[in-house]
């Protein structure tokens, strides 16, 4: 039986709150009949109070709750609210049984509540009529007559016989109650053993399931790891092949580029060689031309010196001649000067023609060199442009190949991310389902434990009531025995007093026979004897 702090006794200064008021307003029960119904059914009044969803969350400092924790809290709240409604209906039905004068329900009625049923907590029909269980006596109507303080009815022997028969029936009923209590204890032990066995089997099944799931996850992880390793080996092999191909292509391209560079260098060297040869030829031609011009100038200078020498000689001859030949000399001199001028002019004209020819040849050679250089430069430019165009095409192809590979890699990464996201969502859903199933299993275990606790409280209440009935019956039997013993002692005392009175009367009669007393005083003697007997009886009492 629970203490007064748990069930409460209700203060007379407050209004009583029944189970109906509790179901309507959510207030705590303090009505005597409702509290008695709670004690009978093994339900704590605190279990009938409403709770919010927040009370089913694990509280913490600045705690953020996940969606699974919130759903688990909602599930626990729904389970608690469903059990609370069933307990309210059970207490209400037991209160009606109390109002109808019925005795306590058997403890096994705590297991008759089926989740999901509405109306009566024990199934269909009237809640008062349905609380009869096989193996338990039916409810009896309680009598309002107290069992104590009934000594006034123990006056005669017939009542004693009735009390003896009633005492025998009480003893038999006590034996039956004790047997029922023993059977209830045995059933409770069997129920606890069955629950423990089921819990052990459930734990073993859960452990086997968890072990199988772990093995399955390990197998899946190993298979996935093997697939990833095979895939990685294939990718590494493909990457190595691609790397080898790229290396060979790069080597071929490098060889081609080296060959092209070597050819360009050879062409440049040949062009430079040709330019050098042309330059050397031009320099040699220029030097030769300058040498020819110098030689011609030296010849002209030598001729001029010779002519000047001749002129000097002629002048000397002319000076040495007489004036007679002065006119002839002047004429010859004029002729000579004219001839010299003509020769000089002819020499200068020939020299100018030679210089012009050399200049024309140099100009033509320079033009040819420039033309060759221009053609070479154009060829180099064309080759460079073609090489640049080829390099651009190759670069574009390489960029296209890189872009295609990057696109393929991005698609593979996107698919892998999508697959990982899908696997993560699936794992979260499985974890959520597992957690919710675990919560449901915990709620089922908690419901079984609560049923066991209710049965234990109901059995404690039944044992307390049984002990009260036994103590009351024992007190009643003791009172009957004491009264019977008192009656027996009274009868024995009366018989003893009667015998003593007869003996005294006989002694008195014998004394009066032997003496001379008068028989008229016999009444006085009997009166004195009766007074003495009364005094003796009062003193003995």
From TrEMBL:
Signal peptide bounds: none
Biased composition (Basic and acidic residues): 199-210, 223-261
PANTHER family assigned: KDA ANTIGEN P200, PUTATIVE-RELATED, N-ACETYLTRANSFERASE DOMAIN-CONTAINING PROTEIN
Superkingdom of the organism of origin: Eukaryota
Biased composition (Low complexity): 116-127
Region feature Disordered, mapped onto this chain: 116-144, 199-261
Lineage of origin: Eukaryota, Sar, Stramenopiles, Oomycota, Peronosporomycetes
Source organism (scientific name): Phytophthora citrophthora
Protein name: Reticulocyte-binding protein 2 a
């Amino acid at each position: 039986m629970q203490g007064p702090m748990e069930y409460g006794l209700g203060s007379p200064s407050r209004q009583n709150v029944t189970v109906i008021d509790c179901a309507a307003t959510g207030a705590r029960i303090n009505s005597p009949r409702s509290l008695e119904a709670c004690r009978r059914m093994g339900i704590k009044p605190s279990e009938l109070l409403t709770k919010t969803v927040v009370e089913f969350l694990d509280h913490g400092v600045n705690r953020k709750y996940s969606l699974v924790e919130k759903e688990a809290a909602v599930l626990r709240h729904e389970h608690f609210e469903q059990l609370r409604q069933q307990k309210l209906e059970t207490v209400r039905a037991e209160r009606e049984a109390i109002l109808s004068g019925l005795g306590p329900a058997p403890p096994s009625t705590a297991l008759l509540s089926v989740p999901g049923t509405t109306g009566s907590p024990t199934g269909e029909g009237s809640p008062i009529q349905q609380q009869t269980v096989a193996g338990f006596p039916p409810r009896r109507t309680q009598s309002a007559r107290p069992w104590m303080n009934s000594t006034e009815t123990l006056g005669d022997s017939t009542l004693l016989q009735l009390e003896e028969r009633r005492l025998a029936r009480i003893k038999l009923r006590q034996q039956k109650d004790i047997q029922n209590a023993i059977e209830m204890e045995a059933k409770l032990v069997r129920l606890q053993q069955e629950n423990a066995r089921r819990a052990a089997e459930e734990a073993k099944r859960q452990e086997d399931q968890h072990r199988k799931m772990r093995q399955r996850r390990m197998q899946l992880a190993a298979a996935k790891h093997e697939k990833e390793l095979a895939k990685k080996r294939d990718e590494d092999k493909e990457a190595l092949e691609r790397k080898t191909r790229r290396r060979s292509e790069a080597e071929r391209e490098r060889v081609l580029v080296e060959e092209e560079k070597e050819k360009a260098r050879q062409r440049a060297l040949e062009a430079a060689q040709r330019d050098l040869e042309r330059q050397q030829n031009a320099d040699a031609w220029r030097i030769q031309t300058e040498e020819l011009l110098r030689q011609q100038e030296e010849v002209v200078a030598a001729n001029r010196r010779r002519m000047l020498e001749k002129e000097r000689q002629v002048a000397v001859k002319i000076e040495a001649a007489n004036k007679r030949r002065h006119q002839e000399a002047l004429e010859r001199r004029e002729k000579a000067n004219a001839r010299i001028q003509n020769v000089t002019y002819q020499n200068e004209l020939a020299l100018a023609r030679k210089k012009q020819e050399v200049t024309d040849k140099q100009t033509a050679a320079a033009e040819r060199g420039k033309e060759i250089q221009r053609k070479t430069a154009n060829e180099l430019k064309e080759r460079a442009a073609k090489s640049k165009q080829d390099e651009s095409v190759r670069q574009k192809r390489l960029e296209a190949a890189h872009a295609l590979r990057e696109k393929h890699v991005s698609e593979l990464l996107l698919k892998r991310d999508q697959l990982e996201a899908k696997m993560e969502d699936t794992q979260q859903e499985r974890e959520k389902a597992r957690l919710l199933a675990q919560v449901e299993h915990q709620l089922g275990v908690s419901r079984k434990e609560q049923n066991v606790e209710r049965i234990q409280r109901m059995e404690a209440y039944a044992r307390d009531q049984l002990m009260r009935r036994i103590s009351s019956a024992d007190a009643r039997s003791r009172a009957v025995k004491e009264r019977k013993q008192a009656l027996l002692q009274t009868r024995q005392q009366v018989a003893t007093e009667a015998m003593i009175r007869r003996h005294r009367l006989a002694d008195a009669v014998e004394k009066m026979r032997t003496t001379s007393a008068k028989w008229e005083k016999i009444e006085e003697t009997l009166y004195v004897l009766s007074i003495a007997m009364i005094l003796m009886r009062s003193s003995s009492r």
